[in-house]
Design goal:
The chain is mainly beta. It has one helix at about 35-45; strands at about 10-15, 20-30, 55, 60-65, 80-85, 100-105, 125, 130, 135, 150-160, 170-180, 185-205, 210-220. The N and C termini lie close together (about 5 Å).
Length: about 230
């Protein structure tokens, strides 16, 4: 059997001045880059949990999700909207109140918890940034998948401009998505994945930062033809 690849995220950050001149390009790759909160949400669903469990949103509010329909626990409820990035009901297509890329300026040498989930980071940057809407490509899910086992890719992109008048230090960029619960009318934002920059990015006033992340993951089980009667073992 051929070796299967893990989930990968290729990250590209482009800094441009007000005239559109490219000042700097940063590129890198993360293997299995998902935030702990997102993985916990996904894996709990595998077990058909009829009780309740807690995850945190990006503002460190506790969300008790997957509450049983017969439960009287005053939690967030079962998911009525799965992790959503674009065209999410009742939300704009950019942070800090909608899905997209959030930025943090934590000192990663001292923020141990911040290395597993951005909900434990303390220095979220929520002001002085003008966002463009987030985009996802391909725009139709089926277009990303072929008919045979292989790799699937999709790209999430967003631009933001420093309008604060002062330099902004960025150590982490996090992609956040929206979810909604049956017992809570307001959607919440949870982290999906995050990327650390070493050294940190110094984001000057008037400069536009464009971040583009391409996720690539395997699906299906590629097999080769075998002689009659042979047993294939993955």
């Amino acid at each position: 059997m051929p070796r299967r690849e893990s989930v990968k995220a290729t990250v590209k950050v482009t800094l441009t001045d007000p005239d559109g001149k490219v000042l700097r390009v940063i590129e890198g790759e993360n293997s299995d880059p998902f935030d702990r909160q997102f993985l916990f949400l996904i894996f709990q669903g595998f077990f058909g949990n009829v009780g309740s469990f807690a995850i945190q949103d990006i503002f460190y509010n506790t969300l008790w999700v997957y509450v049983s329909p017969t439960s009287t626990f005053p939690g967030y409820g079962a998911l009525s909207m799965p992790p959503c990035l674009i065209n999410c009901n009742g939300l704009p297509n950019s942070p800090p109140n909608g899905p997209g890329f959030l930025f943090y300026s934590d000192d990663l040498s001292s923020s141990i918890g911040c290395s597993t989930s951005v909900v434990y980071c303390s220095s979220m940057i929520t002001s002085g940034i003008a966002y463009s809407p987030i985009t996802v490509s391909p725009s139709i899910v089926a277009d990303a998948f072929g008919n045979n086992p292989g790799m699937v890719s999709f790209t999430v992109s967003q631009s933001a401009t420093n309008v604060s008048g002062s330099p902004i230090t960025v150590t982490i960029a996090a992609l956040v998505a929206a979810i909604a619960g049956t017992a809570n009318a307001s959607p919440s934002l949870i982290p999906v994945s995050f990327y650390a920059f070493t050294p940190p990015i110094v984001w000057s006033p008037g400069v536009t930062l464009t971040i583009s992340v391409t996720y690539t993951l395997p699906y299906g089980i590629p097999i080769s033809r075998s002689p009659s009667g042979a047993v294939l073992v993955a």
